[in-house]
Amino acid sequence: MPIRVALADDHVLVRQGLKTLLERERFQIVGEASDGREMIRLTESLHPDVAVVDIRMPLLNGIDAARELSRSCPKTKTILLTQHEEQQYIQEALEAGVKGYVLKNQVASDLVHAIQQVARGEFYLSPGVSKAVVEAYRARSNRPADPLSGRERQVLQLIAEGKSTKDVAVVLGVSVKTAESHRSRLMRKLDIHETATLVRYAVRRGLVES
Asked: How many Å separate Cα 49 from the centre of its chain?
């Protein structure tokens, strides 16, 4: 049976290119998503063997989407597509349960091998990131713990994307009061009290683009 794959990228042309590449290699594309939340719903419904997820997506970024999928769909293996070679991103991805880490400038040559390997239960890292992985694990003991919970990090991304508290509540499926509580708590934890400063923090964390 062919390996069943779901794709998530907010750029339609990128998804079409990936789909063409993978179907040519006889993978079965069972679904496509344009943001992280749609990807979670799609994966929970279709249970693909492998989810190929872009690191930068609206509503929920690829790393946090992978973290959710590792809990809700543990049999689906997640591969992250990214342009980042920095140890911060690699370490966060591995901690989130990602099984493959593929650099976008090597997608054509790497993605097929990555899907094949993670479907067999192995890990795959694009050539060129191995040094960063070693450095990341060496730095683990020195890296401060993330002060935010997963939900607070999701709220931070939505705020940085310009969503109002009401919008955040709708996206997360919670009350406005609960969304406001999350917002107040994360600002207190970060000791940040202005939205503009909060956005800059989210950019530094890689949750949104500048």
From this structure: 17
